Amino acid sequence: MKIPKSHGVARRSSRVKRFARFVLRGGRRRVGAAGCLSSRPALLLFDFDGTVADTFGSGVEILNLLAPEFGYRRLEDSDVSRARDMGTREIMKFLGIPATRLPKISKRGKEELHKRMDQIRPFAGMADIVRALHADGFRLGILTSNSKENVAVFLKRFGLDLFDFVHTSSKLTGKARVIRRILKEHKLKPRQVLLIGDEVRDIEAAQETGIHMAAVTWGYNSRKAIGALNPDHLVETPGELRDLVRSVRPETPTVPRKGWLSRGRKILSRTPKGP
User: Fold this and answer.
1) What is the pTM of this model?
2) Which of 100, 127, 205, 210 is the most core-located residue (most Cβ within 10 A)?
3) Nearest to 233 by CA among 255, 218, 217
4) Is 243 helix (H, G, I), strand (E, B) or coil?
5) Whole-angstrom Cα distance, residue 268 to residue 114?
6) Active-site annotation holder among 47, 49, 198, 232
7) What's the pLDDT score for residue 33?
8) CA distance linking residue 215 with residue 194, whole number of Å
9) Do the beta carbons of residue 180 and residue 204 sit within 8 Å?
10) What's the CA gap between 16 and 70, in Å, rounded?
């Protein structure tokens, strides 16, 4: 049977697109979802905006404030609900934000948010949950696209400076690269980390790096948007988050049986026997 030329062209086009996505991920292959937690995480990695801190209202205000300066359209009240169903790239396209302007917009946005940090509060119940998880002995970290300065001001104000570290991602879509750095620096395996975030890009970063993901429904993206990506866990309230991480037991290290190889063959003792 003769295969039409158009079929071959389509296959080549598909391969080119897959390679382009591979390059955009920095030469890293997509790992996939880690699945539900089976043991206690060694690290709880929190997103900041929309997960711990309620910055949504101020974020929309700043977005519209900067619209004339950078030449994109405002996000009207009638479009907010629709925007919450979108990922970062979709919102950029919807508002007409060129990717080349994003770094400058992000920088200005953080500066404007810094002026409003006295207005930002934790989501109801989140401060107590963070304190409880810290008291339980969990190691806590923050991964954010916000600035360390803004995060530090917030944590100090609410007595939440209980996190071991704060890592920032300069790119709105670059969290996967920072996650890999965190794994390397702290000598952790992907299955030992639970990322807690509220956006589509958080889930994508978790699935790209193979760490566990708990997507919360009270943040920037809607429940519909994050549910469509099938995160490992979907969390409706801060209390559910606490119950989730407390429900799994600590990981039991596997110790090989003395005198046996993994293949089941007995190892000859090197200790000389007595007379």
Assistant:
1) 0.80
2) 205
3) 217
4) helix
5) 66
6) 47
7) 77
8) 10
9) no
10) 33
Say whether 136 is catalytic: no
Each residue's pLDDT tens digit, 162-206: 999 999 987 766 899 999 999 999 999 999 999 999 999 999 999
Q: What is the pLDDT of residue 8?
A: 57
Phi, psi angles (nearest 5°) of residue 54 = -85, 90
Q: Which residue type is seen at 240? A: E
CA distance between the termini of the chain: 79
The count of residues in the chain is 275
Contact call for residues 137 and 174 (beta carbons, < 8 A): no
Instruction: Assess contact for 207 and 195: CB atoms under 8 A.
Output: no
Cα separation values, 139 from 124, 177, 210, 234, Å: 22, 21, 19, 21
Q: Would you state the structure tokens that stand for residue 126, as one six-digit string? A: 């989140």
Per-residue DSSP letter, 231:
-
Q: Where are the alpha helices (DSSP H) in the chain?
A: 5-24, 56-70, 77-83, 88-95, 102-114, 126-135, 148-157, 175-185, 200-209, 223-227, 238-246
CB-based contact 164:130 (threshold 8 Å): no
Q: Which pair of structure tokens corresponds to residue 240?
A: 């559910």
